[in-house]
Amino acid sequence: MSYPGYPPQSGGYPQQPGGYPQQPGGYPQQPGGYPQQPGGYPQQPGGYPQQPGGYPQQPGGYPPQAGGYPHQAGGYPPAAGGYPPAAGGYPPQAGGYPASAGGFPPQAGGYQQPSAGGYPSMPPAGGGWGAAPGGYGAPGGAQQGYPGGPAPNQPMPNYPGAPGAQPSNPGYGGGVPSNPKAPAISKGYRGSIKDFPGADPLRDVEVLRKAMKGFGTDENAIIELLGSRTNKQRVPMVAAYKTTYGKDLMHDLKSELTGNFEKLVLAMMKSHAQFDASELREAIKGAGTDEACLIEILSSRSNAEIHEINKIYKAEYGKTLEDSISSDTSGHFRRLLVSLCQGNRDERPTVDISLAKQDAQKLHAAGENKVGTDESQFNAILCARSKPHLQAVFHEYQQMCGRELEKSICREMSGNVEDGMVAVVKCIKNTPAYFAGRLHKAMHGAGTKDRTLIRVMVSRSEIDMLDIRQEYMKKYGKSLYAHISDDTSGDYKKLLLKLCGGND
Q1: CA distances to 345, 376, 401, 428 from 300, in Å
Q2: According to the UniProt record, where is the region Disordered (predicted)?
């Protein structure tokens, strides 16, 4: 039997019916060595498990070596006429595993090595494989490859994933990932506002009280204080102010400040979830609805953040967010928002390329490849799948159709549902670029949409403001800092520039 990649050698083991007969120049059969076995090594799908008919260990034979099949010191010495040693052991077999120095011992059904704190382990499918020790591409460190396998960021062999529970609804996220991808390696903290060392809310409220007491207000003191504290350091000031002075800090700020500067300061004094809930309320109530605000918040927050927003919204306004959305919107746009406000998006980091291709095909079949459009199919995929999975879906869609998904949506839909679907796609595809676009739209043209400007600057200042600044400069050829300076003024501008964090 010939192994792929090993050229036949004179004096080696030519394939003979029934096993390996003695050949001139080969290994003579030795007492206590490996007895001739019928059938030699039968090829097994899925790896190198020891099979009946192989070479059982015999007294006096070669002792097994740790580390699998690669040529090891103290293992099988090379002999004239035998197989020349190959770096890395046996070459990969169809459906098998590349061997590595110090590789994994054979496992029935593939290699499965769950690791505590790593990515969720997946049940092995036929010929499948699991996570390498320590997890694959653990966040915060260098991306790890598989020893003896393809280098990081190179395509992996397409091992089939496990079938879905229902043919019409593939088992998304289940089975074995055919091309697993880890989330992008963390680039560290990307916010523009950092914790102030040794901040004490009791001392901070003294500064605020002094700034607001007496004739006039010291706006610069307020800007310097709030612009150098993170949200978790600002929010406790509300309780500390009431404890120290028996007065409501928010009420005092409202009475001392005016205009957009007042709105910005009050936004900074709320927790992120409180601020989001109040913005959603403002977007829904009154004449007209700010649909873009609803989509912006609901498409960019995590499940935990959306659950907290729902909780605060119900407590503050006596009505669920879902009910408010349902009473103020209609049609497929309402369905999109209701789906997003459930906070049930899959958040697993693994990606199965085979399922991403299936979803891309479904989106094509529901839109470009159909008379009319099946908006519910778009809704089901865009609102339920994980963000890494959807990024793979967008890539597969473009490869398949030669067109970006958002352009297909613009061709197939219209009105609020078009704007909503496109915003969801853009936000998931590149979140900092999406927010850079939101900021540019808020400041471009006649007038400034200050509510949008304040909301984005406050909500992203501790998440990805540095990335937003990079995307803004790349896309518009002008720094965000410079655009804010040109478009705003006074104390409002000073505090916005504090949140921006610097010029690029």
Answers
A1: 11, 21, 27, 8
A2: 1-193
